[in-house]
Specification:
By secondary structure, the protein is an all-alpha fold. It folds into 2 domains: 2-127, Four Helix Bundle (Hemerythrin (Met), subunit A) (Up-down Bundle), CATH 1.20.120; 133-158, no CATH class. It has 10 helices and 2 strands; from the N terminus they run ααααααααααββ. The protein has helices at 2-10, 21-24, 27-53, 59-73, 75-84, 89-109, 111-124, 130-133, 139-143, 152-156, and strands spanning 158-159, 162-163. The chain has a two-stranded antiparallel ribbon with strand order 1-2. The radius of gyration is 25 Å and the shape is globular. The termini are far apart.
């Protein structure tokens, strides 16, 4: 796994200049590298603890370990891809798929370790995104609570005698 981390580090391009401003363009590469380093590092530490505590290694443990290493070996590829295209969906989804595959590989080695990883990811969903908390609700959603500010177009526009807006929409269409 140390080799995987080294390959990820080598995939970070060098800055185009010698000023701090030259590092700005590398921000996506550096951020996804840090995330990948932490993820692979967690697997590495857990892998060492798990195998040190094992009294014997069976063939099924070896195959599940190989399954885990396969998914971890893909981290340098998806890390470089996300670093290059941080705003695109396919690299981001591929990164998640590789993380999921590695988590499933860990499940074959130790179900309790995989449950711990899954729980940690679930706990992250409880942390609210402050950007979403500040986003104002759309006018059509506020209107349902009796707040009609900004919803005048939805309520006042008439087409063929029927008001056009969410209040008159049914489950069968407008």
């Amino acid at each position: 796994m140390a080799v995987i981390i080294t390959i990820m580090a080598f995939s970070i391009p060098t800055p185009d200049g010698s000023t701090p401003g030259a590092l700005r363009g590398l921000a996506p590469h550096l951020l996804v590298y840090v995330l990948s380093f932490v993820m692979v590092g967690i697997y590495w530490v857990n892998h060492h603890h798990l195998l040190r505590s094992a009294e014997r290694i069976s063939g099924s443990v070896m195959w599940s370990n190989l399954f885990l290493l396969f998914w971890l070996s893909l981290f340098p590829i998806v890390t470089a891809w996300v670093g290059r295209f941080p705003r695109h969906a396919l690299p981001a989804a591929s990164y998640g798929l590789v993380g999921l595959g590695a988590g499933m590989g860990l499940a074959f080695v130790s179900s309790w370790l995989s449950y711990a990883v899954y729980a940690a990811v679930a706990v992250l969903w409880f942390i609210p995104d402050r950007r979403l908390a500040r986003t104002p609700r759309p006018a059509w959603d506020r209107a349902a609570d009796g707040d009609h500010r900004g919803a005048s177009v939805a309520w006042a526009t008439r087409t063929g005698g029927a008001a056009v807006g969410p209040a008159n929409w049914s489950h069968h269409g407008p």
